[in-house]
Design brief:
Radius of gyration: 17 Å
Number of helices: 8
Number of strands: 2
Distance between the termini: 31 Å
Shape: globular
Helix content: over 70%
Structural class: mainly alpha
Strand order of the largest sheet: 1-2
Largest sheet: 2 strands, parallel
Length: about 230
């Protein structure tokens, strides 16, 4: 079967925009945000109590900057592409705040509608991450950490993604207890745990689907800079 060319630069743009919409949908559905973004979301909830201008998007690139530092410490090296990852995080943060503003315009919904928003959000998020895994442009710090560490130590990418998501789940629970009191699960619900378990397999599934129908190619000669 002849495959359609999908330029990796477009995969980067679509991946970021779709990921922002995904995060906004899951936050609005209120079944619990993805464990990948839960630490940043909890940071947003806590800091915005004192600094109202501190948006979800700002919390995202603040937390990702910290994760980039951890990445460099684990790998014991720093590359220019790691700093481009911070640029990606900032772009995503602006896209997320825009998506949050648009989704907020949706009127009050029912439980069934919220459930549909949550499912769509999870599917869009995993598809977006798969797209970002297919581009040479530095992804967000979350994906960069998974990509670089799994490559460094020879781990299976999608299995390590599951490990990372579950670890993020534990960190988010601890942050919730620290920020809002013992046994207070702010922003973390059953949907958060479910997403931690299904994200890895769904990303692998979307990767297979994309690679079945598309051939990812670079359109611009910029790969050497990343």
């Amino acid at each position: 079967m002849k495959k359609t060319i999908f330029y990796t630069e477009l995969a980067y743009i679509f991946g970021l925009l779709i990921l922002a919409v995904s995060a906004a949908l899951t936050e609005r559905a209120d079944f619990g945000v993805s464990m990948v973004i839960a630490p940043a979301y909890l940071l947003h909830l806590k800091v915005s109590q004192f600094l109202p201008f501190f948006t979800f998007g700002m919390a995202e690139y603040t937390f990702q900057a910290l994760l980039l530092v951890v990445t460099m410490l684990v790998l014991r090296k720093a590359k220019l592409s790691y700093f481009f990852s911070l640029v990606t995080a900032v772009l995503y943060g602006f896209a997320l705040d825009g998506a949050m503003a648009i989704i907020a315009l949706i009127p009050e919904t029912s439980f069934a509608a919220d459930l549909i928003m949550y499912i769509i959000g999870i599917l869009l998020g995993t598809a977006a991450i798969s797209l970002l895994f297919h581009t040479y442009i530095s992804p967000e710090a979350y994906e960069l950490f998974v990509k670089e560490v799994s490559r460094k130590f020879g781990y299976d990418l999608h299995r390590f993604k599951i490990v990372y998501d579950c670890s993020s789940c534990v960190i988010s629970i601890l942050m919730s207890f620290l920020f809002f009191g013992l046994w207070h699960f702010e922003g973390i619900k059953l949907g958060s745990v479910l997403s931690a378990l299904v994200n890895g397999p769904l990303i692998a599934l979307f990767s297979k689907l994309f690679e079945r129908f598309f051939r990812f190619e670079d359109r611009l000669p910029l790969k050497k800079y990343f």
